[in-house]
C-alpha cells in the first residue's frame, strides 16, 4: 500500500542524508527480514523503520544503497524481481523497474545480483555507513562484500577504511517530524482516541480484559490501521500496577479501575494512549483523589512541553505534582524537596514521564547532547504519561489505597508556541469520563 507521505519527501530525506554523509562514502541499509511464526506461517511483515523512512518501500528482501556523487545514479535499490507465478501466491511485487518509476530511486537491480554488483559500488569509497551491529547476519554480509574488494588490492582496488554506524545521522533526522508526518501521527492519534472511547463505553463488570482489547482492535482495523503500535495493555484492578501487563485475560470487577495503554500503528507511525477509568462508570473517593493527582501532573507536564525547555522539564513538572499529591493524601510524609531528593516517590512512580514517538513507539533520537538534556524544538513528538501505582502488597500505606494503578498518556508535538496534543479526542477528566460512560 502506498505511503501517506508524499514520494518527494522520501527523496528529500535521502538527499539530506547524503548531504550529511562524509565525502567518498556509501550507505547501505537492508529492509526488515521476514520472520517465521511457526512452520509455513510468517509473522505479519513490518518494514524496518529506518528503511521505511528513506524509501516508503514496503517489501522484504530489499537493500537501499546511497552513493553520493555516483554518475549513474546516487540512490539505488536492490529488490525482488517481478515473478507472475510467485505473485499469484503472495501478491504484487514492485520489481526493480517499478522501484524507479513509483518510488523515485535513480537505479534498481534484482536482489539476487547484489553480491555481484555491490562490491563494485563500495570500491573506492573510504567510508561505509550501515546499521553496524544491529543484525549479525547483515554484519557478515557487509564484511563479505568488503573482503571481495580486499582480495583485489593487488589489482589496484581500494577497500573502505571505515565502517560506521548509520544511526547517528539518520536518527537525528527522524527526531524532527515534518508536516506530513505530523498529519499521519494526528490521524493515528484520532483513531486510537476513538478506540479508547469505544472501550470505555463498553466496559462492564463480568466482562474480561480481552473484551476491551477486542473493542480497541475493532476500531483500529475499521479505520485501516491493521496493527497495534505495541501489544495492548488492558489491566483491571491491581493488574494496572504491572507496567507491561499484556495477559489481558482477567475478569473485570465492579469497583475496580481498568488501565488501558494502547495505540494503533498507521502507515508505520505509532500512537500511544493510556486512559484509566472505573469498570462501573463511577470513581470511588480514593480512586478519584489519586486520579486527579495524576491528571494534574499530566497537565503540568504538557504545559512544560515547549521550545526553550529541555527534555527533562516535563518529567520534573510531573514529579513535583505527583510527589506533592502523595504527601497531601498521606501516602508520603515529610517535605516535597526531601521526598524528591530521597526518591521516596519511586515505589509509586517508577518510570519516566515520556519518550520520543514516531515510526517506533519508543522512537529514536538522543535525549541528551553530551551531558545536557536536549532542548525541545518544533517538530519533536513525544508522549506525556505520568502515573501512580499503589502495589497491592504495599503495607506502608492504608489498605484503601492498595491495588490502584493509574496512568494518563497523550501524544504531543512541539510547535512554535507550545505544543499540540494529538490524542485529546478521548476524555480524561473524572467528569468527562463518567459522562461518556453513562451515555
Ligand atoms: N506503551 C508503551 C509506553 O507507554 O511507553
Ligand atoms: Mn508511552
Ligand atoms: Mn503507552
TrEMBL record:
<protein>
    <recommendedName>
        <fullName>Xaa-Pro aminopeptidase</fullName>
        <ecNumber>3.4.11.9</ecNumber>
    </recommendedName>
</protein>
<keyword id="KW-0464">Manganese</keyword>
<dbReference type="Pfam" id="PF05195">
    <property type="entry name" value="AMP_N"/>
</dbReference>
<dbReference type="GO" id="GO:0030145">
    <property type="term" value="F:manganese ion binding"/>
</dbReference>
<dbReference type="InterPro" id="IPR029149">
    <property type="entry name" value="Creatin/AminoP/Spt16_N"/>
</dbReference>
<dbReference type="Pfam" id="PF00557">
    <property type="entry name" value="Peptidase_M24"/>
</dbReference>
<dbReference type="InterPro" id="IPR007865">
    <property type="entry name" value="Aminopep_P_N"/>
</dbReference>
<keyword id="KW-0378">Hydrolase</keyword>
<keyword id="KW-0645">Protease</keyword>
<dbReference type="GO" id="GO:0006508">
    <property type="term" value="P:proteolysis"/>
</dbReference>
<dbReference type="GO" id="GO:0005829">
    <property type="term" value="C:cytosol"/>
</dbReference>
<keyword id="KW-0482">Metalloprotease</keyword>
<dbReference type="InterPro" id="IPR001131">
    <property type="entry name" value="Peptidase_M24B_aminopep-P_CS"/>
</dbReference>
<feature type="domain" description="Aminopeptidase P N-terminal">
    <location>
        <begin position="5"/>
        <end position="139"/>
    </location>
</feature>
<comment type="similarity">
    <text>Belongs to the peptidase M24B family.</text>
</comment>
<dbReference type="InterPro" id="IPR036005">
    <property type="entry name" value="Creatinase/aminopeptidase-like"/>
</dbReference>
<dbReference type="GO" id="GO:0070006">
    <property type="term" value="F:metalloaminopeptidase activity"/>
</dbReference>
<keyword id="KW-0479">Metal-binding</keyword>
<dbReference type="InterPro" id="IPR052433">
    <property type="entry name" value="X-Pro_dipept-like"/>
</dbReference>
<keyword id="KW-0031">Aminopeptidase</keyword>
<dbReference type="InterPro" id="IPR000994">
    <property type="entry name" value="Pept_M24"/>
</dbReference>
Amino acid at each position: 500500500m502506498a505511503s501517506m507521505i508524499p514520494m518527494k519527501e522520501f527523496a528529500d530525506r535521502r538527499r539530506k542524508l547524503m548531504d550529511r554523509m562524509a565525502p567518498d562514502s556509501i550507505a547501505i541499509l537492508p529492509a526488515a527480514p521476514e520472520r517465521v511464526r511457526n512452520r509455513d506461517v510468517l509473522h505479519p511483515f513490518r518494514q524496518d523503520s529506518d528503511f521505511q523512512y528513506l524509501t516508503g518501500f514496503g517489501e522484504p528482501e530489499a537493500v537501499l544503497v546511497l552513493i553520493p556523487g555516483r554518475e549513474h545514479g546516487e540512490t539505488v535499490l536492490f529488490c525482488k524481481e517481478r515473478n507472475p507465478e510467485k505473485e499469484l501466491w503472495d501478491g504484487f511485487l514492485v520489481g526493480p523497474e517499478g522501484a524507479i518509476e513509483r518510488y523515485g530511486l535513480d537505479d534498481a537491480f534484482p536482489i539476487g545480483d547484489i553480491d555481484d554488483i555491490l562490491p563494485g559500488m563500495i570500491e573506492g569509497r573510504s567510508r561505509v555507513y550501515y546499521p553496524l551491529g544491529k543484525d549479525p547476519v547483515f554484519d557478515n554480509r557487509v564484511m563479505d562484500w568488503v573482503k571481495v574488494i580486499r582480495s583485489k588490492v593487488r589489482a589496484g582496488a581500494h577497500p573502505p577504511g571505515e565502517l560506521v554506524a548509520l544511526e547517528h545521522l539518520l536518527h537525528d533526522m527522524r527526531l524532527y517530524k515534518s508536516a506530513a508526518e505530523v498529519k499521519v501521527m494526528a490521524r493515528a492519534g484520532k483513531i486510537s482516541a476513538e478506540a479508547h472511547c469505544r472501550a470505555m463505553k463498553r466496559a462492564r463488570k463480568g466482562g474480561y480484559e480481552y473484551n476491551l482489547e477486542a473493542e480497541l482492535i475493532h476500531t483500529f482495523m475499521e479505520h485501516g490501521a491493521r496493527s497495534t503500535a505495541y501489544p495492548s495493555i488492558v489491566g483491571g484492578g491491581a493488574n494496572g500496577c504491572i507496567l507491561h501487563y499484556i495477559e489481558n485475560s482477567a475478569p473485570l470487577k465492579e469497583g475496580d479501575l481498568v488501565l488501558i495503554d494502547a495505540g494503533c500503528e498507521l502507515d508505520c507511525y505509532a500512537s500511544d494512549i493510556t486512559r484509566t477509568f472505573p469498570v462501573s462508570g463511577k470513581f470511588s473517593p480514593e480512586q478519584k483523589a489519586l486520579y486527579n493527582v495524576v491528571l494534574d501532573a499530566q497537565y503540568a507536564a504538557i504545559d512544560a512541553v515547549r521550545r526553550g525547555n529541555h527534555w527533562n522539564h516535563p518529567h520534573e513538572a510531573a514529579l513535583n505534582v505527583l510527589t506533592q499529591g502523595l504527601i497531601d493524601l498521606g501516602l508520603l510524609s515529610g517535605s516535597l524537596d526531601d521526598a524528591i531528593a530521597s526518591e521516596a516517590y519511586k515505589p509509586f512512580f517508577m518510570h519516566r514521564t515520556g519518550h520520543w514517538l514516531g515510526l517506533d513507539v519508543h522512537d529514536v533520537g538522543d535525549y541528551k547532547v553530551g551531558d545536557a538534556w536536549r532542548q525541545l524544538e518544533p517538530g519533536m513528538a513525544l508522549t506525556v504519561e505520568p502515573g501512580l501505582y499503589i502495589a497491592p502488597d504495599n503495607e506502608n500505606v492504608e489498605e484503601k489505597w492498595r491495588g490502584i494503578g493509574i496512568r494518563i498518556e497523550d501524544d504531543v508535538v512541539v510547535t512554535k508556541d507550545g505544543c499540540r496534543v494529538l490524542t485529546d479526542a478521548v476524555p480524561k477528566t473524572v467528569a468527562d469520563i463518567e459522562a461518556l460512560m453513562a451515555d
